[in-house]
Design goal:
three-stranded mixed sheet, binds zinc ion, about 15% helix, alpha+beta, about 375 residues, globular
């Protein structure tokens, strides 16, 4: 638990060495080029009653109320530290000023003991917190900290659940990044990046899609000018080499196509340990597994909305083009023998070459490149097998 949110940091030196590796604090610091600090404290609670007591007697609100009461009574938590930000609607941004609402809390339900009585039954997580609204978790003089139960500017949290047995660290990490992402972006899901909906860990791309990073606006980006012939160098997406904030040497290149379409180009060299682009199931077991040069390269994303509202169609362009996909039975993925996934193989070339993912949004296996077809698995090899 203590690896998740870190309060301690190096206040000098490189941003990628500020927080403990593999923590969420390190993750957001690296993803933002050193701009975004996510810190915090963790507490472990063992509930006072049986699972069925909450399910049958006091329900979800009673479950959360006990958590809030016990956290509120914990005098080692300095609640005023956890309300630092508020929304400035006029400026359309967040400002460093209290709004009397807890900034953010993640509740991790380690395991479902029986029937899921929480929200979004069967899903590995959700936002917002739901449950009691405006619960006063701390009051001292004029200082009040409340919990907002909606996904709005006052919203105070997200929930992660052990829907596949007790939560492990990596699964918790992947779900938390996704659920918190619903505050950064919106309620919908996409075909690339952390806002995919592939069952709880962002197997698609832990390091966010180019579009997601661009949308957050925390990296150096540059828009290509077609009116002149110019070379455009881009440095590694980690931002570790090349001078910071150099407009001539960006991490993200934006290439306009029409007034509503553009490409985003990024250079992924796997310099950061978070930059571990992998397809398939390996990352569910160990997202930091060493995979050598696999996944390194230039990545091209295509967005065909105006780039303001998440999610429009945002897909990744594959070098081997568009295909029709066909079903070849079911197989056990690496991460569980209790579950199966459909095996998809490239079948034929589409008759009409249109931009994927075609007229349907998700999992349209006609006329799609591999990444835009949703989760797919071709014939491969279990990573635990030796040659
Ligand atoms: Zn989601």
């Amino acid at each position: 638990m203590n690896k998740f949110l870190v309060d301690e940091r190096n206040r000098t030196g490189d941003f990628w060495n500020r927080y403990k590796d593999s923590s969420l604090s390190d993750y957001y610091q690296e993803l933002s080029n050193g701009n975004f600090h996510v810190t915090g404290e963790t507490r472990h609670l063992k509930m006072n009653h049986t699972w069925n007591y909450y399910k049958d007697t006091v329900y979800y609100n009673g479950f959360l109320t006990e958590i809030y009461q016990r956290l509120g009574a914990d005098t080692t938590i300095h609640w005023e530290k956890f309300d630092l930000w508020s929304r400035n609607d006029a400026g359309d941004n967040y400002v460093f000023a209290k709004d009397k609402y807890l900034d953010m809390m993640g509740i991790f339900i380690r395991d479902l003991v029986g029937v899921d009585f929480t929200i979004a039954t069967g899903n590995p997580g959700y936002v917002p917190l739901f449950g009691p609204n405006d619960y006063v978790i701390h009051a001292s003089g004029i200082d009040t900290v409340k919990i907002g139960n909606d996904r709005d500017k006052y919203g105070s949290g997200f929930v992660v659940k052990g829907t596949q047995g007790p939560l492990g660290f990596y699964r918790s990490l992947g779900i938390a990044i996704h659920e918190y992402g619903h505050y950064l972006f919106a309620g919908g899901h996409s075909t690339s990046g952390i806002m995919t909906s592939n069952g709880g860990i962002s197997i698609n791309d832990l390091y966010m899609s180019g579009y997601e990073k661009y949308k957050l606006g925390l990296l150096d980006s540059l828009t290509v000018n077609f009116n002149q012939s110019t070379s455009y160098p881009i440095r590694d997406i980690s931002g570790r080499n090349g001078s910071s904030q150099s407009p001539d040497f960006p991490q993200i290149l934006r290439v306009p196509i029409t007034s509503t379409d553009y490409f985003i180009i990024e250079n992924r060299r796997k310099i950061s340990s978070w930059d571990v682009y992998m397809l398939g199931d390996t990352s569910r077991i160990d997202p930091f597994r060493q995979t050598g040069d696999y996944g390194k390269g230039i990545y091209i994303y295509h967005s065909n909305n105006i780039g303001i509202d998440y999610t429009g169609n945002v897909d990744m362009e594959c070098a081997d083009g568009l295909w029709n996909w066909s079903n070849y039975g079911y197989e056990n993925p690496d991460w569980t023998n209790a579950d199966t996934v459909q095996v998809k193989l490239r079948y034929s070339l589409p008759a009409i070459i249109n931009n994927d993912p075609g007229t349907l949004y998700f999992n349209n296996y006609a006329n799609a490149d591999g990444i835009s077809a949703g989760p797919w698995f071709s014939i491969g090899k279990n990573m635990l097998q030796s040659d």
